[in-house]
Amino acid sequence: MKVTVVGAGITGVYLAYILAKNGHEVAVYDARSTSYSGTSCNPGGINPLHGPGLPGPMAEFYLSSYQEHLNQSELIANLSGVHFNLKKIDRLFLAFSKEEVTNLKAMQKRYDENKGFCAKWLSPDEVSQQDSRISERSCGGLFTSGNFTVDTTAYLNALKKAAIKLGAIFKDKNANQFIVQDQIVTHIVTDEQEIPVSTLAITNGSWAANSLRALKFPINIQAGKGELLLLKFKKKPFSFDITHGLTGLYQFKESLYWAGGTMSSAEIVAGITEEAKDKILKNIRNILPNLNDFEVISHEVGYRPMSPDKLPIVGKLPNYKNVFIGTGGGSKGVLLSCGIGKALTNIIENKNRSDLRFLSPNRFAL
After folding, report:
1. b/e per residue, 291-309, with b = 16+ CB within 10 A?
2. Stated pTM of the model
3. The domain over range 2-81+152-221+308-364 is classified in CATH as 3.40.50.1100
């Protein structure tokens, strides 16, 4: 089968990898710089036990996505020759109110119920014993194990090289329009030419809204603008990630930590803001008031595709015979890239995935 993929963020590239691995002829089109994708500005968390749709219908999909990363990582590394630093990471979730204590203890149950994960509730004194720089205002925290993290830029590069090794082709061209005949997209239109299409997969993240408008199936996919800071410490400050809501420090490389973050709806335009930088540093100091001895070495921005109900959109596009879509990973985009890519491959191959009907674009049909 010939499959044309529009979008080369982590979901599109993983889809290309799986399709090529299954023997399909794959061409990927995307000329946009990855500097504004959600992939490039991301701590790389592969953490399936918290996020939109939990507890609830997303539980199994999160876990299967997590497992897919682990199952494919060795082959991806061998095919690409790229080290992407996939590693297990502990994480301390802090609580500063009774409501947050209740929510974290509910999350603890999910850790206790899933093999390979564990979580321990820490009293305020036990939190202080983890690190004396944590704010004395803490009401306690949940110390978790079992999640993974990955260098997202290296991972995307590895996936692309692995897909190419398996026969996929990548074109630095944007598909701006589509030619449709009898409910079939026959061509994608780039700035230079009309390119024939057999099967079309739309995986271009926040830009999928533009593609869907061109196909007269508008879904209000928002661009969730997120900004992060990369901090360099003179010595490694923690042996675990530490978070409170959107605020957190995430291990990247030796002495380097991502500090985040912000999330707001925005137009997809270039630009970091001093306001976001100040907000991130203020929030970090609220939970770690005695944290010093670091410098900001980078300030990054990325755009994460957010569907109206905050859940992914995965499936065949209504009213079209050969168009499929996979987007809407939002803040869980790295984790969900494998799940969306594998699920969309199964749907394209006409394998039944009735368990994922709740993610179908049909839910937005008028």
Report:
1. beebeeeebbbbbbbbbee
2. 0.95
3. no
